[in-house]
């Protein structure tokens, strides 16, 4: 491969398809990997300012290194160095050169040795190549929803208060996505290149190509995923081992992060489509505790709830709403329960009705 192409790759000036060509060429022979790594090192060293690093900067760099190498073998977040730290000083440059070459070779070594059984291990430990590409982050604030097309043409419908992170281009082994919140995925099938959807709740979902809904909010102890077609695997790490749980169509898996034992359970719901009703503009409460009702309505309408009487939190609500305003929803809840409400400056104040 021409040196000029590799230099453009290092500078981030290639198209997605051209970057893929470089990575495929590099994976064919170890000498190819080393050649790119050396060019990368040379480019970095020639573009680093010559002034000495301050003590504060050096301390920051070594703290970052410690975070990135907790077991002296794995790089947790190479983009911290490669993408965000544009200005490195003389001391930092030595460390950076080591990271660039070591991490580049780590990816291709894992590529050559990877088999289906190791995918889960790779995804859980995050020891994989990030393509040195920038990461896209999309957040839907409360009251907002979004439809997203991923680099492989997979589709994602994001519920309110949801954050998703993914690279500009997926790497050659795993389509890596991180999510916090709720989303409906329609994943393009590619058995040789599974999608791994990580959450902040201690589990990941391995997908080959299917449709499913995942709910994993940071401020909720209970997470769940419902499968509608195909097959997905729930991946968890326990006692330094990865446990894989297969999920069949129309099954829902519930994960309770507060439980230390048997925190995963499978259920078959009478109406599994209720779990993605939000995608169709509907809110469905089925004997739902008021605590959960409040969280849903806060996200859906971007309001804040204030509970004056804690007895209200023990109530359960059963109702279906379709694009109603927060006032219309609360009018119905007030009419059919012992809850009284008022709205002041985007705050919904709940009180218990007096007999």
Can you characterise this structure?
By secondary structure, the protein is α+β, with helices and mostly antiparallel strands. Helices cover 31% and strands 31% of the residues. The protein has 9 helices and 18 strands. Strands 1, 2, 3, 4, 5, 6, 7, 8, 9, 10, 11, 12 and 13 form a 13-stranded mixed beta sheet that branches. Strands 15-18-17 form a 3-stranded mixed beta sheet, covered by helices on one side. A two-stranded antiparallel ribbon has the order 14-16. Helix 2 crosses helix 3 and helix 3 (30-46) packs antiparallel against helix 6. The longest helix is centred in the N-terminal third of the chain and has 24 residues, at 90-113.
* Radius of gyration, CA atoms, in whole angstroms: 24 Å
Shape: elongated
CA(first)-CA(last) distance: 82 Å
List unreliable stretches of 5+ residues.
72-133
What does the largest sheet look like? 13 strands, mixed
Q: Which oligomeric form is depicted?
A: single chain
Helix amount:
25-40%
Structural class: alpha+beta
H/E element sequence? HHHHHHHEEEEEEEEEEEEEEHEEHEE
Enumerate how many helices there are, as a single number.
Answer: 9
Strand content: 25-35%
Mean pLDDT across residues: 76
According to DSSP, the number of beta strands is: 18
């Amino acid at each position: 491969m021409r040196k000029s192409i590799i230099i453009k790759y290092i500078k981030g000036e290639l198209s997605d398809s051209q970057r893929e060509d470089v990575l495929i060429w590099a994976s064919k022979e170890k000498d190819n990997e080393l050649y790119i790594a050396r060019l990368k090192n040379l480019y970095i060293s020639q573009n680093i300012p010559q002034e000495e690093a301050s003590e504060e900067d050096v301390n920051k760099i070594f703290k970052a290194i410690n975070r990135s190498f907790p077991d002296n073998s794995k790089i947790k977040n190479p983009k911290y160095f490669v993408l965000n730290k544009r200005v490195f000083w003389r001391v930092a440059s030595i460390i950076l050169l080591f990271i660039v070459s070591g991490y580049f070779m780590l990816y291709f070594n894992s590529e050559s040795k990877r088999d289906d059984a190791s995918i889960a291990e790779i995804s859980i430990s995050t020891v994989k190549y990030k393509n040195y590409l920038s990461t896209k982050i999309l957040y839907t604030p409360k009251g907002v929803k979004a439809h997203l097309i991923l680099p492989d043409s997979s589709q994602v419908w994001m519920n309110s208060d949801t954050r998703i992170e993914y690279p500009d281009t997926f790497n050659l082994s795993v389509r890596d996505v991180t999510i916090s919140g709720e989303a409906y995925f329609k994943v393009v099938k590619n058995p040789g290149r599974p999608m791994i959807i990580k959450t902040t709740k201690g589990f990941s979902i391995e997908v080959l190509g299917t449709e499913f809904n995942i709910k994993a909010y940071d401020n909720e102890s209970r997470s769940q995923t419902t499968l509608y077609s195909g097959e997905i695997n729930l991946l968890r790490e326990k006692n330094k081992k990865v446990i894989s749980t297969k999920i069949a169509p129309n099954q829902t898996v519930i994960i309770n992060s507060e439980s230390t034992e048997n925190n995963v359970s499978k259920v078959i719901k009478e109406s599994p489509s209720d779990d993605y009703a939000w995608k169709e503009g509907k809110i469905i409460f089925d004997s739902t505790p008021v605590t959960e009702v409040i969280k849903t309505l806060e996200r859906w309408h971007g309001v804040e709830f204030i509970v004056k009487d804690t007895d209200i939190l023990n109530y359960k609500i059963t109702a279906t709403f379709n694009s109603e305003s927060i006032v219309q929803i609360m009018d119905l809840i007030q009419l059919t329960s012992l809850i009284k409400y008022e709205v002041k400056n985007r705050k919904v104040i709940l009180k218990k009705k007096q007999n």
